[in-house]
């Protein structure tokens, strides 16, 4: 029979895995015409990353104190909810325990930091940006615009080839010439500007299709970072004779793969 601690940890891990899987799928599908998917993805990813990061920090505390988890006040004051802070604390665990990771040794690359920044700000209050704008709240940053500027545009500049960019531009021009004269478009872009012509809509669609696989890959790399850390801590706790710790490595197994595998999958809800 599983004890209560084991069962609680297993349920938390399974719940977190499902949120991360949904978020990783949704971030590939979100675009200017389906903005609600951005919010679904940001909600799942920010919550899932916070939870897996906290599992790592809780397990480190458990190992350090010979089987005691941190109390509520410690979780609130020392760990908190900010993903960027959880990342900093996670790096301290890696360094203090001399943990060797098979893949990324940190998430200090600009693109990873930008993603963490957007998701951390979303969790801290940007998820209410529209409501805050209406009621005069103090926080009015648009998380979709932030993602577009800090993530998508960076990916498009650094990861998409000049040949691909030229093709996107060419296709947009062709479509505009074919149907632009009798087709009406009315959308708002990721950064809030109006899209009123076919050429702009086509270009934005081409841009989204070009950056979407990279978006997903970088998000999966971030998830894998914490999966690796959690797996390493799991084995330390088990080596100390603990019966409380489930095999997190099995729960999160699909996320513990190399980039070539990540590139073969588009959907991650059922993992």
Protein described:
It is a single chain. With 271 residues, this protein is mostly helical. The protein has one domain. 68% of the residues lie in helices and 1% in strands. A two-stranded antiparallel ribbon has the order 1-2. The chain starts with a helix and ends in a 9-residue tail after the last helix. The mean pLDDT is 88.
What topology emerges from the helices and strands here?
Blueprint: H1 4-29, H2 35-64, H3 72-79, H4 83-96, H5 110-124, H6 129-135, H7 143-158, H8 162-179, E1 187-188, E2 194-195, H9 198-239, H10 248-251, H11 259-262
Antiparallel strand pairs: 1-2
Helix pairs in contact: 1-2, 1-9, 2-4, 2-5, 2-9, 5-7, 7-9, 8-9
Task: Give me a quick take on this structure.
The chain is mostly helical. The protein has 11 helices and 2 strands.
* Protein structure class: mainly alpha
Shape: elongated
Strand order of the largest sheet: 1-2
Beta-sheet strand percentage? under 5%
Q: Give the topology string: H per helix, E per strand.
A: HHHHHHHHEEHHH
Question: What are the salient characteristics of this protein?
Answer:
mainly alpha, two-stranded antiparallel sheet
């Amino acid at each position: 029979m599983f004890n209560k601690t084991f069962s609680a940890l297993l349920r938390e891990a399974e719940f977190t895995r499902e949120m991360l899987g949904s978020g990783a799928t949704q971030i590939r599908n979100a675009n200017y015409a389906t903005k609600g998917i951005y919010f679904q993805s940001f909600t799942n990813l920010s919550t899932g990353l916070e939870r897996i990061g906290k599992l790592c920090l809780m397990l480190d505390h458990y190992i350090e104190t010979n089987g005691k988890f941190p109390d509520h006040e410690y979780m609130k004051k020392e760990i908190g909810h900010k993903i960027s802070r959880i990342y900093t604390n996670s790096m301290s665990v890696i360094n203090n325990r001399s943990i060797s990771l098979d893949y990324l040794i940190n998430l200090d690359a600009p693109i990873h930091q930008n993603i963490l920044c957007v998701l951390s700000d979303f969790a801290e209050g940007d998820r209410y940006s529209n409501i805050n704008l209406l009621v005069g709240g103090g926080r009015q940053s648009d998380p979709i615009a932030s993602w577009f500027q800090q993530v998508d545009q960076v990916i498009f500049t650094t990861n998409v080839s000049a040949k691909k960019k030229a093709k996107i531009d060419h296709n947009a021009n062709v479509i505009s010439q074919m149907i632009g004269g009798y087709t009406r478009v009315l959308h708002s872009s990721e950064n809030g500007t109006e899209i009123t012509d076919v050429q702009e809509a086509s270009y934005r669609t081409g841009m989204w299709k070009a950056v979407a696989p990279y978006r997903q890959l970088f998000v999966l790399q971030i998830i894998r970072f914490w999966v690796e850390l959690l797996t390493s801590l799991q084995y330390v706790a088990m080596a100390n004779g603990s019966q409380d710790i489930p095999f997190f490595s099995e729960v999160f197994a699909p996320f513990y793969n190399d980039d070539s595998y990540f590139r073969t999958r588009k959907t991650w809800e059922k993992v």
